[in-house]
Amino acid sequence: MQIITDPSELQNCCLTWRMQGLKTALVPTMGYFHAGHESLMACARSAADKVILTLFVNPTQFGPNEDLAAYPRDHERDIAIAKAQGVDVLFLPEAGSMYAPDHATWVEVPELAQGLCGLSRPTHFRGVCTVVMKLFMLTLPSLAVFGQKDWQQVAIIKRMVRDLNVPVQILPSPIVREHDGLALSSRNVYLTESERAQAPAIQSSLRLAKKLVSEGTMEISVLAEAIRAHWAANLPDGEEDYLSFVHPDTLAPLSRIDGPALCAVAVRLGKARLLDNILLTEGTA
Ligand code: AMP
């Protein structure tokens, strides 16, 4: 595995592969790898000739009071995991090499970025879209793999790619979980023992909602009430950031379950903000 730190060197390497007609897959990450990241690497490995993994804690997607400085890092372990997953190039840009001091160009999909995570993180997706577009330009991949844990991110990137005619296929990859159902996240290390014990209630509440829908409950208010009651009983230290019922592709809020429906939540638990989602009925993202 080659480790590249210089953006132009990465671009040259990937341009050469493209000219050779090789199929390349990009996996963008912020590192501190867990089995969720590994599943994206494995998906990329099985779908392409060359796998490019990027590890960059992108400052522009963090708000002023967020955990940019504290974000967990362990490059040595991450490098070993990337090697074991058969990654061809690990891009580990040096701080400062990704944004010029007078960087002034942004990519935004405001309509899809205003709800859900956008409510408490108003500049987050502008940072995500901009860095993902930069990574696409640096690597010119045939496909790029993103996890469905960040469902809104996948929906936004798919829309960006469609709207700007970006020739990259977006492959969504399923959520990888702990044995008790908690979605894996680099930020799970922030949880205390007691918070960790409560955290599986996030997924169990979503499964409860899905069961209610399968039994015929279509009223959003009834589903939301059931989820909140489950949290009150099992997640006493959790604080709701959002609980939303949206169309899986457009992310438009639903007034009733009468077609494709996604339930997406974010819960603050101690220092962590935990995301999860479930398709209540069919959707495509
Ligand atoms: P991050 O390093 O947290 O920015 O995540 C990098 C990629 O890994 C994103 O596409 C995430 O959606 C994906 N990812 C993170 N956690 C999981 C998980 N538990 N299951 C599947 N994909 C994940």
Provide an overview of this structure.
The protein has 285 residues and is an alpha/beta fold. It has 2 domains: 2-173, HUPs (Rossmann fold), CATH 3.40.50.620; 188-279, Pantoate--beta-alanine Ligase, Chain: A,domain 2 (2-Layer Sandwich), CATH 3.30.1300. The chain contains 10 helices and 9 strands. The protein has helices at residues 7-19, 35-47, 75-84, 110-113, 117-120, 124-139, 151-163, 193-198, 201-214, 220-234; strands spanning 2-4, 24-29, 50-55, 89-91, 143-147, 169-173, 238-246, 262-269, 272-279. Strands 1-4-3-2-5-6 form a 6-stranded parallel β-sheet, with helices on both faces. Strand 8 (262-269) and strand 9 (272-279) form a beta hairpin. Helix 6 crosses helix 7 (151-163) and helix 9 packs antiparallel against helix 10 (220-234). The longest helix is centred in the middle third of the chain and has 16 residues, at 124-139. It binds adenosine monophosphate (AMP). The site of adenosine monophosphate has 17 residues, from helix 2 and strand 5.
